[in-house]
Design brief:
The chain has 9 helices and 7 strands, in the order αααββααβββαααββα. By secondary structure, the chain is α+β, with helices and mostly antiparallel strands. The chain is elongated.
């Protein structure tokens, strides 16, 4: 009998739940452990696992324990290869640019510098322009500080110790030891702010997509800037989830 459109196919839902359990567990599990986690009859669990094992979605080791199969890895590679971060981010960037009237950038970390990957340029008379492919300093831009806050401490120290921490303005941090409190604050709040550290009068906010976006404002405590923080964080989270991020 054909399943009615829009109805959940329970056997498929249960199979997905087993895959989720193994993923969350991070290691192999026995039939008994999966029974304890679900409460389903062992015969049902065994049937689902056997079917998925035949398809390469599940592997079973000599001791009888079950683990995720190589075919899932192949699926994941196919999905990641189809992602185009610029295409995914573009409608979010356009929406923020239209709503705020500020330039928006998508950036990546490359060899200790911030590289512009994509841009939505504002039509305002006062605006920031950064060519795609342009390299920006990591220590005094909102994107750069965001990257520093999200790499390991060892990598952060390596980047800062091997970077030219040039003083672009009187507000620029120029010594590696000065960054500890700032990067801790960025990790806690989930976004980074540049407040005249790269260029006098330039203020921006960056949030992680594991890439970032930013814009320009008069002050960092005004309502329009706080609105930008919200929009950029929401857009970054939406793009992150579109490319598979499942964290908080």
């Amino acid at each position: 009998m054909a399943e009615q459109e829009g109805k959940t196919i329970h056997s498929v839902a249960k199979a997905i739940r087993l895959l989720d359990i193994l993923t969350e567990k991070g290691q192999s599990a026995s039939l008994t452990e999966l029974y304890q986690a679900t409460g389903w009859p062992k015969s049902t669990i065994h049937g689902l696992l056997s079917t998925m094992r035949e398809a390469g979605l599940i592997e079973q080791d000599p001791s009888g324990r079950y683990w995720l199969g190589i075919h899932l890895f192949e699926y994941g590679c196919a999905v990641s290869n189809s992602w185009d971060i610029g295409t995914i981010a573009k409608p979010h960037m356009q929406r923020i640019c239209n709503e705020l009237g500020e330039s928006i950038f998508l950036s990546i970390l490359d060899r200790g510098a911030v590289v512009t990957l994509a841009e939505e340029e504002s039509h305002a008379s006062l605006r920031v322009v950064s060519e795609v492919g342009a390299r920006l300093p990591i220590h005094c831009t909102s994107q750069g500080k965001l990257f520093l806050a999200n790499v390991s401490q060892a990598e952060c120290r390596r980047i800062l110790n091997h970077s030219d921490l040039k003083a672009y303005t009187p507000h620029t941090l120029t010594k590696p030891e000065q960054f500890s409190a700032e990067l801790s604050r960025i990790r806690d709040q989930g976004y980074a702010v540049e407040n005249g550290e790269y260029k006098i009068g330039l203020r921006s906010v960056a949030a992680p997509v594991r890439d970032a976006a930013d814009g320009m404002f008069r002050q960092v405590h005004t309502d329009d800037f706080l609105q930008a923080v919200r929009l950029v964080c929401e857009a970054a989270d939406a793009v992150s989830r579109a490319i598979g991020y499942r964290g908080r």
